[in-house]
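Here is one chain, start to finish.
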Amino acid sequence: MLSVFHSSHVNGTFMEGARWMNLGKLLRFLSVVSLLATLTFALVLTSACTGGLNTDDRNSVGGAASSSGQITVTDMTGREIVLNGPATRIVALSPSDCEIIYALGAGESIVGRGTYCDYPEGVLGIPDVESGADMNVEQILALNPQVVLITKMDQGGQSQIAALENAGIKIVICDIKNIDETYTAIHIIGTITGKDAEANAMVDGMKQSFADIQSKVEAHKATKPPEPTPEKIYFEVSPLQYNLWASGSNTFMDEIATMLGLDNVFADVNGWAEISEEQVIERNPDYIVTVTMFYGSGVSPEEEISGRSGWGNIAAVKNGKVFRINNDEIARPGPRLVNAAEDLMGYIYPDLVD
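Its structure:
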């Protein structure tokens, strides 16, 4: 059975949730559409979303700890948050934030998770709360958190934020669209949880991994005849059944394409945007990457794309270069973006797989 890319926003984080065949899964998709729209709007606010960083402590990019033990951090909307010390009770509404917390070794600090937080497996034992536009204040208050990590999508209204803040809860907003902002979020979360050293190591490791991938691709290309133009790739983040959406520039998918020596056919689009079949056909990508999930029965996402009317002459379809990538790895801006880049490299350049 097919399932729409159910982002974890992408914040992703942008693309957290949609499913194809039943009502529950469709509702998840609708929340994704809402998130995509939010991200599209948010991209015009780039200067507000770069996450002003306190540089008092060179080893704590996301904030600073004072001699009194207080922690000051500036979130990704420029809001300054002061904590008395590392947070030990956190509600994380975004799957990407949950993953980052666990990857930093601070999973024990999570007392509540958003509906779509499902990785790593250990998080499933933690109470879940409604997130997104339906963020449930009462559920969150009942968990008695010190900090709630949210994205722009989770702001159902300023009244909800005010209700939490009036209860003494600190709100930290991480809103990620590209790889640099992923690093920023990791540093912010590292500071909040008292895991600055781990955050620094994680970011350094990701940077090195991405650099290694790019070096491998460049070395490989140097052994081949020069290409008149780079090959082209199309990232389909929502399938035809629910209107086509593509990943454009200023997204981590676009950056991964560049890393792999490919041109994103929708690089002229800023962020994630709805596009048409005619645009895809006209731009004629050499590779199509779908994030639609598949449960092993019925038509696969690759077959569905290849069988679309009028798509038969697209280079990717004609040459059998339609690739279904791990939904969560490519959709959730966190350390597993490296896995997504490596998987895509292995598909496009199989000779580079160790």
